[in-house]
Design brief:
The chain is 82% helix and 0% strand. By secondary structure, it is mainly α. The longest helix is centred in the middle third of the chain and has 41 residues. It is globular and about 55 Å long. The two termini are 15 Å apart.
């Protein structure tokens, strides 16, 4: 029990305190969240990706293993979602909502911060691999699911090509493999930008929760949140064992896929008019319940 309390107070509580500032800011001033979110996503996050990957000097074998884990768990969760949809006899729109909310997690503002607080920079650099791969999957697989095949594949590709982190990882891998030295002033500028990513993400998280804080329906929210917070970590545990992951690779990856539903799913659901109220309910419910489930699994799985 003491281990669970320690995780809650030392690793998770600081995250929610900073997010609460964003929540209060949004409730008191009703700011345009999209502006700050765009700055974090297009400026700070690519800097964080580049700085962490280049600075970590992770072996290529680790990068490949972490990337493989990310793809496997997301797709495996999708298969379980399809099965659950058939067993529950859900309508087609409900199945889409279920898949969006259980496959894609808040591995950015929540997951990256938790891994950084718990494991420091080595943990952050590994968690970033999951974040990058899952971001690409959101804007390809996620967009395709939301459109249910009616969207042109070129549209999904264009969305991916507009993700700055995509280019940051390509450049970072090139610099890493070629053992290139980044000019000092440029690297310092990138590090400054990277330092703003985590706090910016948390403020955006709190602001989004303030905007999405009504549970419009528990009909789909309860099963979806349960699958995300209970089944997700179990799939991650099995996959990590199957891939032979150990140490920080194992711990950070399992934590990343144990996160609540990604806030970005509400954006996709709204854009494609896929029951955004239901998606919002699942995002909020899974986020509020996640501190308890995360603390339990971190101790239970010895992460």
């Amino acid at each position: 029990m003491s281990g669970i309390v320690e995780v809650l107070t030392q690793n998770i509580l600081p995250i929610f305190i900073v997010a609460a500032l964003g929540f209060l800011l949004q409730r008191s001033q009703a700011l345009d969240v999209r502006t700050l979110s765009s700055v974090v996503f297009n400026v700070f996050t690519p800097c964080l990706v580049f700085s962490s990957l280049v600075g970590s000097r992770l072996p290529l074998a680790d990068l490949a293993q972490l990337a493989a884990f990310s793809v496997i768990v997301v797709l495996a969760m999708g298969l379980f979602g399809l099965l659950a949809g058939r067993l529950l006899r859900l309508s087609r729109p409900d199945v889409v909502v279920l898949l969006l909310t259980i496959m894609f997690v808040n591995g950015g503002n929540f997951g990256l911060t938790l891994n950084q607080l718990r494991y420091g920079e080595p943990g952050l650099s590994r968690a970033l691999v999951f974040f990058i791969v899952s971001t690409m999957l959101v804007y390809t697989v996620g967009v395709f699911l939301a459109s249910m095949g009616n969207s042109d594949w070129r549209h999904a590709l264009r969305r991916l090509l507009r993700v700055p982190a995509f280019y940051a990882v390509i450049v970072a891998v090139f610099v890493y493999t070629m053992q290139l030295e980044v000019p000092g002033p440029l690297m310092s500028a990138i590090d400054i930008g990277a330092a703003g990513a985590i706090p910016g993400m948390l403020i955006v998280l709190g602001m989004n929760i303030a905007r999405l804080s009504s549970l419009s329906s528990l009909r789909l929210a309860l099963p979806a949140a349960s699958m995300r917070l209970v089944l997700g970590p179990l799939i991650a545990l099995v996959t990590a064992g199957w891939l032979g992951m150990q140490g920080l690779n194992r711990s950070t990856s399992i934590i990343e896929f144990s996160m609540p539903t990604a806030v970005v799913t509400t954006v996709i659901a709204t854009e494609f008019d896929v029951q955004p109220g239901e998606v919002t309910s699942i995002v909020v419910l899974s986020t509020l319940l996640s501190p308890i489930t995360l603390a339990i699994y971190i101790n239970l799985f010895s992460l």
